[in-house]
Amino acid sequence: LVRLRSRLARSQSTLGKGLLAMLSRDRIDEDTWEEIEDSLLSADVGVGPTQELVERLRTRVRVEGVASPDQAREILRSELLHLVGTDLDRSVHADRTATNPAVVLVVGVNGTGKTTTCGKLARVLVAEDKDVILGAADTFRAAAVAQLATWGERVGVPTVRGPEGGDPASVAFDAVKAGVEQESDVVIVDTAGRLHTKTGLMDELGKVKRVIEKQAPVSEVLLVIDATTGQNGLTQARVFAEVVDVTGIVLTKLDSTAKGGIIIAVQRELGVPVKLVGLGEGADDLAPFAPEEFVDALLA
Ligand code: GDP
Is the N or the C terminus of the chain less surrounded, counting Cβ atoms within 10 Å? Predict the structure, then answer.
């Protein structure tokens, strides 16, 4: 986790350092506020949250003044934390009930890192001593089923799979059935992310969810978003959020972008907390999202 933290800090610190420098200037004028706004926007914080943050910073600077760089840091830290939100439920609900495994459905556009996230999440849960089953319901992307099975082997958990091109709902059904029969703790179901049409997607994910719920309630629907795709990724994510009740966001590839502001933008846009962040392609590169750590990394 320490390693991950320093990696997040490295990729994100330009934004924080820049903001800190601007806010520590002897004279903060309109040009300065514009610069602050620009750097937030170019870090993908999004228009609404940027305006809100700048308004709040303006008020605090006016009322409190900025007497030292330390004070600038304190103001910035508390306002960024306010924006990111410190009181959201960011835990991944993956505890079995007396009768059922927890079911975690992983959704999102192809290429965002869904399959990888399923593998990494399985690893995290196995480390918590949980019995995990993977369900390879992304039957449309040619390599997805084999890729998930490879993750399963690596992490040491079984993968339930069907034929390539088969019915995703039937694989999801089989995976959860196995989880119920084997009294597993968690079933993680990878899904297809074809953004063909909204109704197509709705039908597909709706069916997957319905067949699962014949056996066990879905405890968590994680929407995977690629942080490097910025506002475009956000637009696609919105479609998913409209067709299925998303309970948490996984923001992947944060190691490959300095635009960590997207964390703030997605939460605001979708009204769902970021629960996990992907910081690399390896098995250990998935971390719980912790607002304090994130903001401290920004300002490191
Ligand atoms: P899917 O189509 O949504 O299932 O996406 P995949 O899981 O196949 O991931 C697509 C690519 O992104 C793969 O090459 C992954 O190794 C890579 N990837 C996934 N998560 C991360 C991450 O957090 N950081 C980096 N750098 N790459 C990632």
Answer: N
